[in-house]
Design goal:
The protein is α/β, with parallel strands linked by helices and 268 residues long. The chain has a single domain, classed as Alkaline Phosphatase, subunit A. The protein contains 8 helices and 12 strands. The strands form 3 sheets. The chain has an 8-stranded mixed β-sheet, with helices on both faces. The protein is globular, with a radius of gyration of 18 Å. The protein starts with 8 loop residues before the first strand and ends with a strand. Bound molecules: zinc ion. Zinc ion binds next to loops. Keywords: Hydrolase, Transferase.
């Protein structure tokens, strides 16, 4: 990561609430053509979320604790705050002296931009300001929210606008929290309705919706130079698994998340 920081643009895309099993099934079935084209080997990594809900998980990720590989470690980290005795910091780790990677990248000359989705990014009230407040520039609109059937398209359009307005030389760290997977998501499945509500099937349809538009985000982020992209979920969610519904609870459907990172090469 030390070679990447300062050279490439950076994208952190959190697919909020995306379940690992649904992501894996859809990739294997060829239903995520645009995402799978970038995943090494066409498959998601299985990881453990650093928190069981949006606020906890994103605070941890911004502090350098991305989801942990779901196998016995220690696993070296890409980013880490300087911390005596850290067993997951190695030579390649980008080590920073600020409390979070966002301000660390700003100190290294990156323009930092947040495009919010779920409520913890809505900038409406003190708590909704905390995570966007880490960034130099932040955006949130009702059309980006969980209630919008066109949330991801709207978020991607904003990202395209942000990139187009930046001077070519300016390095960019763009964070986008996609809200489409989060409940409610029934409106992404044709034939589903408010009365039948959300399920693994509507969750899957929401992921296919994201896949249909993610290519535009990747193109925008690699239009100026090479981009290092991290795409992951912040936590999963339960749809009646062992009687549980939702997240902010300890269940395998919540703590297991899909993860990937890869380079987006600039188009010629
Ligand atoms: Zn979340």
């Amino acid at each position: 990561m030390n070679e990447v920081v300062g050279r490439d643009d950076l994208l952190l895309l959190t697919l909020d609430t995306l379940r690992h099993d649904v992501a894996v099934e859809l990739a294997a079935a060829g239903r995520l053509p645009n995402l799978a084209a970038h995943l090494p080997g066409g498959v998601w990594e299985k990881r453990h979320a650093p928190g069981s809900f949006t606020y906890a998980s994103h605070q941890a990720m911004f502090a350098g604790f991305l989801p942990t590989p779901a196998s016995p470690g220690p696993h070296p980290r890409l980013f880490a705050a300087r911390f005596a005795g850290s067993e997951t910091t190695e030579d390649r780790t980008f080590v920073f002296d600020t409390p979070d990677v966002v301000s660390a990248l700003a100190a290294r000359g990156y323009h930092t931009v947040c495009i919010g989705g779920v409520g913890f990014f809505n900038k409406r009230g003190a708590l909704g300001d905390v995570l966007p407040g880490l960034f130099q520039e932040s955006h949130w609109e009702p059309e980006f929210s969980v209630a919008s059937p066109t949330s991801f398209e709207s978020q991607v359009a904003r990202a395209e606008q942000v990139v187009s307005e930046l001077p070519a030389r300016q390095r960019l760290f763009l964070f986008l929290n996609a809200s489409a997977l989060h409940q409610p998501n029934w409106f992404h499945l044709e034939g589903a309705g408010r009365d039948t509500g959300d399920s693994r099937l509507t969750h899957a349809a929401a992921l296919e919706y994201v896949d249909r538009h993610v290519g535009r985000l990747f193109s925008a982020m690699s239009a100026r130079r090479r981009c290092f992209a991290i795409v992951c979920s912040d936590h999963g969610t339960a749809y009646g698994d062992d009687g549980y519904t939702g997240h902010r609870l300890g269940h395998e459907a919540v703590w297991t998340v899909p993860y990937s990172h890869f380079f987006l090469e600039p188009s010629a």
